[in-house]
Request: fold
Amino acid sequence: MKLFTINAHSLQERNYPRKLEQFAEGVARERPQLVAMQEVNQTMTAPPAEGALLAGYVPAPGHSIPVRRDNHAAQVAGRLRSAGLPCSWTWLPIKRGYLRYDEGLAVLSLAGPIAQTDAFRLSGCSHYADWRTRKALGVRLEGREDWFYSVHFGWWNDRREPFSRQWAALEAALAEKKAAGPVWLLGDFNAPAEVRAESYDLIAASGWLDTYRLAGRREGRATIRGAIDGWRGRMGGRDGLRLDQIWCSRPQSVALSRVLFDGERGPVVSDHFGLMAETV
Reply:
């Protein structure tokens, strides 16, 4: 199974219409069975989505915000359908972004219908206008016992919302699912794999397995280059960091970990590169 994740940055990107096309074309070419996205935006004042734009949409629990016409997940799903790839998808708004967007998480399935969705809060704060608000969005696909979650965590040293508290919230919320079957976490962990005794090591110490380290072959490592939003002054002199990761709760056979949309393996479409893990 091919699992793919990207912090899309979506409507905030310069030349967004072109990058949207490039991204959809790349996904159609690579054909991952599951796509997890973060920073999936829609303009708060855009008209509601209707008709074909909502094809394959499965609502996520716990919100009443409508999908709007320029919703990034809806636009990607529509282009995949136009390319002949049936797409079941869900989207969860989490917070207001840049004063004009509903910003959230999305999961797209190209491997069959989404059978169930799940969502829960990671952060202590819950106010929609607070940029520190964090949630997780999960799906289970028809015919599979695995749960797949799109996640976007805060930083290790955030005094108000430290990573460790958000991680504890995730562990508590997923305890029963982890006991019942495999659980996958895909997303922007804001947890540099290069930094010891912080977020990345906490995840590993909790028993989760990094598909990058499990992979028999690796293509690319860093998923950001240079100082992007949230990481200015935090790079520690490094040019790149591996912030975007795919973890599993149980041992898996992983053939390949591959960075995509990095300018070498596909055009750059976001301030983050994408990551794909291919299981055997």
